[in-house]
Specification:
16 helices; disordered N terminus; single chain; two-stranded antiparallel sheet; 5-stranded antiparallel sheet; Helicase, Ruva Protein, domain 3; alpha+beta; 48% helix
């Protein structure tokens, strides 16, 4: 995805035991109509309009100008909508906590083992098997149409929301407007996401105040940001609407996302290496020839599908490091979240669920 930090995953998992899958998608439950002239459908009036500082009003007016000129929104209605959105100070605090650490551990400390254990658990595997069995036909259809295997889709949805158990309880319009207008460090990014969110609500005929997600504005089973919805989401159940809170649309949309980033049908994700290469840089964006890695002391445990250039991945196992050859499909998983741990967890969780069926 557009980068959603691993911190979000931790927050979701802490409350997962209290979450339930939506019995009805909020988009279906609250859908009105998509023919509101120049604006979004509103079921009702929400919060009282609030006054704001001059500088904030200037920022909002610039945003409104863009929405009017680019998408034909009604200026006054959009003013009223934004005036009803709440500023969430706690969202800003959580975003600040995501700042990258200045230093990395100099010796193995089990970071990968701890990360992996958040997802690959007996109860989680049971939930994953249940999801896979329930949507087996749709997962197979996604593979047939997009070339993305069921275990990858199941892994993504499992890591992101525990197969729909925890999709977030923050009003998306509150989160995005807070970050667009009160968080200068990433204001442009979240302004663009707010733009795409409002266009989505208008086109789908949904009240923007009725949709909840993560504190950064991610939505539905797969935690798509609004920009990902606009570019990659699909109506996979063919009901005339695109709804990421519907598991079938989510399955198709995740597959569509991966295909657009170059997923290679039938190809491997990564191959474990024998040996150690402690002097080499590692990470999903590194590039090495097979010969260079061989000279460093590494050897793949199985075929590399003919690839002559790979990334070098390193997992902290506690008492040593485990090295992997990262192949193009591994890199594609990191387009969802720019993290080696994340991509490896998605892949290994999906495989574990597959083996548990």
């Amino acid at each position: 995805m557009q980068r959603i930090a691993i911190f979000i995953i931790t927050i979701l998992l802490l409350v997962a035991c209290n979450g339930d899958r939506f019995s009805t998608s909020p988009m279906k439950e609250h859908r009105g109509h998509a023919n509101v002239k120049g604006g979004v459908y509103l079921e009702k009036s929400h919060n009282q309009f609030k006054t704001a500082s001059t500088s904030l009003e200037i920022d909002k007016e610039k945003f409104i100008d863009r929405m009017v000129s680019k998408h034909g929104f009604n200026r006054q209605q959009l003013r009223n909508v934004l005036a009803q959105a709440n500023k969430l100070d706690w969202v800003i605090n959580l975003m600040d906590k995501q700042a990258p650490k200045a230093t990395s551990p100099t010796a193995p400390n089990g970071a990968w083992i701890r990360y992996k254990s958040k997802f690959i658990t007996p109860s989680n595997l049971s939930s994953g098997v249940e999801f896979w069995n329930q949507y087996q036909k749709e997962l197979q259809r996604a593979y047939n149409e997009y070339g993305v295997p069921p275990e990858i889709i199941v892994g993504i949805i499992g890591v992101e929301t525990g197969w729909g158990r925890v999709m977030g309880k923050t009003k998306i319009i509150d989160a995005l407007s807070t970050l667009a207008f009160y968080y200068p460090r990433r204001a442009q990014y979240f302004s663009d996401e707010l733009e795409d969110f409002l266009v989505m609500c208008r086109d789908e005929g949904v009240d923007p105040f009725d949709l909840s997600g993560s504190f950064a504005g991610a939505m539905g089973y797969g935690q798509f940001m609004p920009s990902a919805f606009r570019r990659h989401a699909v109506d996979f159940n063919h009901d005339g609407h695109i709804d990421l809170w519907d598991p079938v649309d989510a399955i198709g949309s995740v597959a569509s996302y991966f295909k657009s980033y170059g997923w290679q049908r039938g190809k491997k994700v990564a191959v474990m290496a024998d040996g150690q290469a402690l002097s080499l840089d590692t990470g999903f964006s590194t590039k090495y020839s097979i010969e260079t890695l061989a000279k460093a002391g590494l050897k793949p445990q199985s075929s590399l599908d003919g690839h002559t250039q790979v990334s070098l991945l390193r997992l902290d196992m506690g008492d040593n490091y485990q090295f992997w050859y990262g192949l193009p499909n591994f890199y594609v998983i990191t387009r969802y979240n720019h993290s080696t741990h994340y991509a490896m967890a998605v892949w290994q969780l999906g495989l574990a669920v597959k083996d548990a069926r």
